[in-house]
Design a protein that fits this description.
Strand content: 5-15%
Helix content: 40-55%
Structural class: alpha+beta
Number of domains: 2
Largest sheet: 2 strands, antiparallel
Oligomer: single chain
Distance between the termini: 44 Å
Number of helices: 2
């Protein structure tokens, strides 16, 4: 019985990993950034961006490439 549960758990984990990889590949990657592009963290009451910081292309991380 324990061996079956172990195999079932491995099957479920593999299935979830496959679904996650498929969803990751289906999500479009953000366009490449120009050197003077800024990333803004919020929008104020007048729909103007606030909390903006310049994006340093030399310090791109995984989240920046995914458009987060």
């Amino acid at each position: 019985m324990g061996q079956r549960l172990l195999k079932l758990g491995a099957l479920v984990a593999g299935t979830l990993a496959a679904i996650a990889m498929t969803r990751y590949m289906a999500t479009p990657v953000a366009p490449s950034y120009a050197p003077d592009t800024v990333q803004c963290h919020a929008i104020d009451a007048q729909d103007a961006p606030s909390g903006c910081v310049a994006i340093d292309p030399a310090r791109f991380g995984f989240a920046a490439l995914r458009g987060m």
